[in-house]
Amino acid sequence: MDRRQFLESMALLGAAAGVMPAALGGCSPAGGKGWRGKFDENLVCIISDLHTNPGSYQPEKLKRVVADILAMNPRPRNVISLGDNAYLTGKDEEYALLKEILAPLDGSGIVFTMAHGNHDRRENFVKFFPEQVASSALPDRLVHVVGTPRADLIVLDSLQEPEDTTTWITPGALDDAQKAWLESRLNATTDKPVFVMSHHPIDEVKINALLTGSPTCCGYIHGHDHVWRTDWIKKSYGSRRIVRTLCVPSTGHWGDIGYTLLRLEEDRAVATLHEYEYFFPEPAQPDEPRPAEWAAIEADHRGATCTFVYAR
Hints:
The chain has a single domain (36-309), classed as Purple Acid Phosphatase, chain A, domain 2. 27% of the residues lie in helices and 25% in strands. The protein has helices spanning 3-17, 58-71, 92-102, 122-128, 130-134, 176-187, 202-205, 208-212, 292-301; strands at 39-47, 75-81, 111-114, 144-147, 152-155, 194-198, 217-222, 229-234, 242-247, 255-264, 268-279, 305-309. The strands form two sheets. The chain has a six-stranded mixed β-sheet with strand order 3-2-1-10-11-12. Strands 4-5-6-7-9-8 form a six-stranded mixed β-sheet. The chain starts with a helix and ends with a strand.
């Protein structure tokens, strides 16, 4: 009997006794606060562009996302934030509020992984999320490999920090150490599909050739633009090799507002947009009519999907 068969048999015995073993994500300390549900090890929630702004509208919209994640059953085992966790310049008060908003995830059994965006600041971030920095795969950058049973998710650090801490640099970039590490990781002998993620679009981080040249990379996912947008990159004009790309929405700043669920299946992964609303450049005031274009975008995007076929 292998481990999977053992766990399944334990689940049946536990169900008969009214108990679910902790290894299957049932009633256990990992579930947190008396929660009696399951985890889906192949379900990943992706959020981005939180822009935590004390005293404004963004925090309440992020709280809505956190509440919805915790209400899921099964819960995703992993939640990944693709950066711009802070509002504009990564101030202490922004990260302090963000930590407070994310506190309900503590003890929930969910593994939370964070990336840097161009509005984050490494020096201030580490004060409030030292565990994220401590677990990074590379020094001086926030780089993680999120492992799931069916795919590995590589989360990169595309933040270019300005010398002037009162401003920010919009374009993203990867330093040479990250590119070398990523190339080594992608070239490692493995049959496991790989997703690569960072805050910025792929044309800014300039790893097109690395991804299309990898036999296992099946997708690139990013934030920054605050819109749901699918696209693809090619290896060359004469090659049939392409890699799909996906831009995910903001949790509550402007643009498409919501989160993305990435369901890892046996031969593919399907990303689904959970859109609450659309607005630009900020929500309409209570006495202000909402533009018809906003409603049209909401209708077009709600429930939209993007399918990534595993490279073979």
